[in-house]
């Protein structure tokens, strides 16, 4: 996993100099367990895409380069690190995927038993930043991306047939050292990320009856989505607040 450190640092560097989109996606089963993914997609960076593809192809032939499609599981962390996580019991269900052959995309994945476990999932990644010793940082450095670009703690859950999502802005320790400065009302961010989006998709087992929220819309019977300017989300995460009522 030591090879992943340069990948994480490269990702942070490119995020500060290039465009990317964020997608947050939920899949709910009948018992309301499910799967959560959050992706940072730089595939639209035309000037870099050819570079990523050539690096990935070269790594396939040598097997030594970190620039290749990779799937990592938190379960593979050394016990000396994993057992010190805030919620080590979630490690078996937490993964990170890095795709480079078709651009550059980083995806965090989590299989939840209850949707409110997602905050605990992110607490584990944030916790890696404070750990020391062998193995620290390779996955944790990826986790810092979410802290930089979504400084909110989400309250998600069910009230009967209604799924509710509420974003609570929080101050994150250590963000005073962020090279971009204050993530809200930041002229530099507006210039860099003005055309980028924050998209959400909610996939339900049951049929959707009613939706409420800014830019929220039904797409068929089981899918609800919304798309916001990334800058709007950075400045006021509560624009993501929504509720979705199912028929059953």
What does the secondary structure layout of this molecule look like, with pairings?
Elements (H helix, E strand, L loop, with lengths): L3 H12 L5 E8 L5 E8 L4 H17 L7 E4 L5 H4 L11 E6 L5 E8 L5 H11 L11 H10 L2 E8 L2 E8 L17 H7 L3 E7 L4 E6 L3 E3 L3 E7 H6 L6 E5 L2
What does this structure look like?
This protein is an alpha+beta fold and 248 residues long. It has one domain (4-246). The protein has 7 helices and 12 strands. It has helices at 4-15, 46-62, 79-82, 118-128, 140-149, 187-193, 230-235, and strands at residues 21-28, 34-41, 70-73, 94-99, 105-112, 152-159, 162-169, 197-203, 208-213, 217-219, 223-229, 242-246. The strands form 2 sheets. Strands 3-4-5-2-1-8-11-10 form an 8-stranded mixed β-sheet. Helix 4 packs across helix 5 (140-149). The longest helix has 17 residues, at 46-62.
SSE-based structural type: alpha+beta
Q: Kindly state the mean pLDDT as a whole number?
A: 75
Helix content: 25-40%
Shape descriptor reads: globular
Instruction: Tally the beta strands.
Output: 12
Work out the helix count: 7
Uncertain ranges? 1-10, 132-138, 173-180
Tell me the domain tally: 1
Per DSSP, what share of the residues sits in E-state strands of 2 or more residues? 25-35%
What is the C-alpha radius of gyration, as a whole number of Å? Answer: 18 Å
User: Can you list the strand order of the major beta sheet?
Assistant: 3-4-5-2-1-8-11-10
| Through-space gap between termini | 45 Å
H/E series: HEEHEHEEHHEEHEEEEHE
Largest sheet: 8 strands, mixed
């Amino acid at each position: 996993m030591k090879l992943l450190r340069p990948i994480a640092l490269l990702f942070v560097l490119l995020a500060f100099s290039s465009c990317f989109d964020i997608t947050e996606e939920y899949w709910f089963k009948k018992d309301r367990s499910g799967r959560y993914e959050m992706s940072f997609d730089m595939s639209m960076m035309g000037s870099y895409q050819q570079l990523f593809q050539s690096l990935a192809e070269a790594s396939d032939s040598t097997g030594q380069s970190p620039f290749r499609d990779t799937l990592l599981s938190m379960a593979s962390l050394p016990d000396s690190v994993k057992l010190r996580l805030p919620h080590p019991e979630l490690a078996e269900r937490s993964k990170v995927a890095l795709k480079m052959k078709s651009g550059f995309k980083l995806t965090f994945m989590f299989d939840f038993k209850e949707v409110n476990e997602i905050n605990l999932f992110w607490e584990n990644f944030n916790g890696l930043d404070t750990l020391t010793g062998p193995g620290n940082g390779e996955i944790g450095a990826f986790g810092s991306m979410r802290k930089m670009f979504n400084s909110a703690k989400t309250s998600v859950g069910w009230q009967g047939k209604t799924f509710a999502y509420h974003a609570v802005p929080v101050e994150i320790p250590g963000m005073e050292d962020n090279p971009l400065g204050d993530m809200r009302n930041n002229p530099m961010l507006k210039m860099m990320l003005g055309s980028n989006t924050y998209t959400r998709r909610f996939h339900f087992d049951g049929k959707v009856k009613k939706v409420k929220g800014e830019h929220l819309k039904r797409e068929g019977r089981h899918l609800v989505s919304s798309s916001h300017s990334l800058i709007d989300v950075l400045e006021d995460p509560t624009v993501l607040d929504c509720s979705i009522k199912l028929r059953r």
